[in-house]
Amino acid sequence: MGRAPCCEKVGLRRGRWTTEEDNLLLSYIQANGEGSWRALPKNAGLLRCGKSCRLRWINYLKSDVKRGNISTEEEDLIVKLHASLGNKWSLIAGHLPGRTDNEIKNYWNSHLSRKIAQNTTKRKTSSTKKTRKPRKTSTLSSKQSNMNPSSDGLLADPNGTSPTLMQSTNTENKQVQNIQQVVESDLATASSSMGDSNEDKEHEYDWDWDFEIDNSMVGLGLGFEGEIFDGDVLSWPWESPTTQVGLDMKKQDEMIAWLMS
DNA sequence: AAAAAATCCAACCGCTGTCCA
DNA sequence: CTGGACAGCGGTTGGATTTTT
Fold first, then answer.
1. Is the CB of A57 under 7 A from strand B?
2. What residues does each domain of chain A span?
3. Residue of least CA–C1' distance to B10
4. Looking at the domain A19-61, which fold is it?
5. For residue range A154-195, what is the model confidence (pLDDT) as tens digits?
6. Is the distance between the Cβ of A37 and the closest atom of strand C smaller than 7 Å?
7. Are A228 and A140 in contact (CB under 8 A)?
């Protein structure tokens, strides 16, 4: 009854992949394409679970996987997207061409979470007052008017409503640069409006934005302490109890589009 | 130089949603 | 309708490497 389990764990190899295994997987997928992960190990002559093969392919062997250090521009973008999306690693990775969800997750856990924790400690010891910083104000409607999905790297997802960075090898670098410029610009503006000169020197992630969705202002106050400033809306627009229970994907997409614009 | 501690990251685990028999 | 296979995702682990003592 039913199908056979996806893989028998008996007799399968685990742990690090060898070069030989990589070559087997690579040549098989190049010849037959990806997919059918259950049957792949047997057909490719690998003593691995199909799930393991898929992971190895996606995170390491795929040709568009970018190796090397995360740049400061990419780091900024990760932090910014994480502030809006939370631990949605695959979603964040979708906006960083060549980076995998696993890589971003690891980078967050090993670098960024610690960096933020350190800054939290520093700020808590250096200052006990919670003062509201000047806001960087903009509106989604005005941002949307500047969006050109067909030319600025934000392309409509053909299979859905989410704005997705399409990974074209020809335009990839330009897309990244566009995103990086926007992020840098936003961070520079936010930074220049901050009062504490010591904080200005360091690249901290502490934003405070307003934006407008469906003609209603939504506020975002984000700090290292996780502080929500007085007067701010306490939940994300798509989580708002006034909209609907659970995620409002349309508003989430609008939010992402705004962040990326 | 050696041991201990910290860091990094590839890989694994388990869960969820979707598809299909 | 039910239940199993599968793909995909986020959390966690474990071992290799690097840094510190």
1. no
2. 19-61, 128-260
3. A16
4. Arc Repressor Mutant, subunit A (1.10.10)
5. 323 333 323 333 333 333 344 444 544 444 443 343 333 333
6. yes
7. no
